C-alpha cells in the first residue's frame, strides 16, 4: 500500500480548510443532493464529498457508508488532491498502490474509485467529490466530464461558504477568517509556549491612488500588496485583508529582531514590486507590531486594537515624503 504524500502547499491548504469552519459541521442539503445525484447518475453504491483534514478524511456528505471519516494515511482522496484532474482507479486489485489497502481488503471493499479534487477560491485542494464501487469498471471521458460538472457545483457551494471568511479580491482571509485562524494559532502557541507577533499594515495615501488612477487600479494595488505579503511571509503565518487598505499578519516563533528583519524583507520585496509596476505610483505602508501577551490581550480584537494604534502612531510620526504613495 502507498500512503498518500502531503501536497507542497499543505500548511496553506490546512489554513484554508480550517478557516471555512466546515469540518465536523452538520449535514447540508446543498451537498447531499450532489452525492445523491452522483450515486444515481453513475449507478454506484457510494458517493462522497470528502474533506482531507490533517490526519483524516472527513465526509461533509456521505451516501452509502456508515461512517463519517476514515484515516488519511489509507485514503484514496489523499492521493486525489495531489493533482488537478480526476483521480481514477478502475480496479484496485490491479494497482500496487491500493491492492492491500484496508479499504480494499476490508469494508467497503473498494474496487473502483474516481475522485475529482475540490478547490477553494484561492486554489488550494480541500478534498474531493468521489464515487466508489465494490466492482471494477471503466471510466470514460464522458464520465469524467459528468463528474467534473458535479464537482464544479460542489465548488460553488464551497465558494459560497468561503465568502464569509475569504477576501474575494486578494484571496487572503478577511477579518472573520483571520479571527478564526488567529484564535486557533494563539491557543496552540500558549500550549507549546511559543511566541506570536501581530503586524498591522495600512497602505499610505491609498485614497490618492484611487482618486488619481481609478478604483480598478486601486484594486490592483491591493492585489500587488497582498501578493508581496504572500511572497515575504511563511506558509504557516496567518495573512489577512482586514478592511479597505488594512492588512494583518500573525507571525509565530519569531523574536522582535526577526520581526524587524521580516519587515525589512517586505520593504525590499515591495520595492521590486514597485519597480515592475508600469503605473506611475509606488505602494508604501505603515506598520504596527505587537508581541502577543495573554495577560494583556484577552482576545484577538484586543491584540489587533493595540497593533492598529501603534501603526497609526508610526504613520503620524513619519516624514511626509516617506508616506507619499504617488510619485
Characterise the protein shown here.
The structure is a single chain. This protein is α+β, with helices and mostly antiparallel strands. The protein has two domains: 10-162, Beta-Lactamase; 175-323, Reverse transcriptase/Diguanylate cyclase domain (Alpha-Beta Plaits, 2-Layer Sandwich). 43% of the residues lie in helices and 20% in strands. It contains eleven helices and ten strands. It has helices at 10-19, 29-42, 77-80, 102-105, 141-162, 175-192, 206-213, 215-232, 256-276, 300-317, 320-323, and strands at residues 46-52, 56-63, 69-71, 87-89, 112-119, 125-133, 196-203, 238-243, 246-252, 285-291. It has a six-stranded antiparallel sheet with strand order 3-2-1-6-5-4. A four-stranded antiparallel sheet has the order 8-9-7-10, with helices on both faces. Helix 7 (206-213) crosses helix 8 and helix 8 (215-232) packs across helix 9 (256-276). The chain is elongated, with a radius of gyration of 23 Å. The N and C termini lie far apart (60 Å).
Amino acid at each position: 500500500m502507498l500512503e498518500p504524500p502531503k501536497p507542497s502547499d499543505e500548511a496553506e491548504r490546512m489554513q484554508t480548510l480550517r478557516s471555512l469552519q466546515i469540518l465536523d459541521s452538520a449535514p447540508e442539503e446543498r451537498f447531499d443532493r450532489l452525492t445523491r445525484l452522483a450515486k444515481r447518475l453513475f449507478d454506484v453504491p457510494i458517493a462522497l464529498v470528502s474533506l482531507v483534514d490533517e490526519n483524516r478524511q472527513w465526509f461533509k456528505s456521505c451516501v452509502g457508508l456508515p461512517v463519517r471519516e476514515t484515516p488519511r494515511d489509507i485514503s484514496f482522496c489523499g492521493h486525489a488532491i495531489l493533482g488537478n484532474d480526476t483521480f481514477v482507479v478502475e480496479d484496485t486489485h490491479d494497482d500496487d498502490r491500493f491492492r492491500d489497502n484496508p479499504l480494499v481488503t476490508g469494508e467497503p471493499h473498494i474496487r473502483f474509485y474516481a475522485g475529482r479534487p475540490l478547490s477553494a477560491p484561492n486554489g488550494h485542494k480541500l478534498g474531493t467529490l468521489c464515487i466508489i464501487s465494490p466492482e471494477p469498471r471503466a471510466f470514460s471521458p464522458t464520465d469524467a466530464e459528468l463528474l467534473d460538472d458535479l464537482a464544479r457545483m460542489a465548488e460553488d457551494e464551497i465558494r459560497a461558504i468561503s465568502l464569509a471568511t475569504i477576501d474575494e479580491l486578494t484571496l487572503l482571509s478577511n477579518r472573520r477568517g483571520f479571527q478564526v485562524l488567529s484564535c486557533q494559532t494563539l491557543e496552540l502557541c500558549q500550549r507549546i509556549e511559543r511566541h506570536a507577533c501581530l503586524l498591522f499594515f495600512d497602505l499610505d495615501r491609498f485614497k490618492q491612488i484611487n482618486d488619481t488612477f481609478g478604483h480598478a487600479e486601486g484594486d490592483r494595488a491591493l492585489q500587488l500588496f497582498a501578493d508581496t505579503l504572500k511572497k515575504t511571509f511563511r506558509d504557516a503565518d496567518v495573512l489577512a485583508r482586514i478592511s479597505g487598505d488594512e492588512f494583518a499578519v500573525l507571525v509565530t516563533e519569531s523574536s522582535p529582531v526577526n520581526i524587524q528583519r521580516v519587515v525589512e524583507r517586505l520593504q525590499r520585496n515591495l520595492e521590486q514590486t514597485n519597480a515592475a509596476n508600469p503605473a506611475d505610483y509606488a505602494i508604501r505602508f505603515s506598520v504596527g507590531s505587537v508581541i502577543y501577551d495573554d495577560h494583556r490581550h484577552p482576545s484577538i480584537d484586543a491584540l489587533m486594537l493595540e497593533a492598529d494604534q501603534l501603526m497609526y502612531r508610526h504613520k503620524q510620526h513619519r516624514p511626509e515624503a516617506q508616506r507619499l504613495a504617488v510619485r
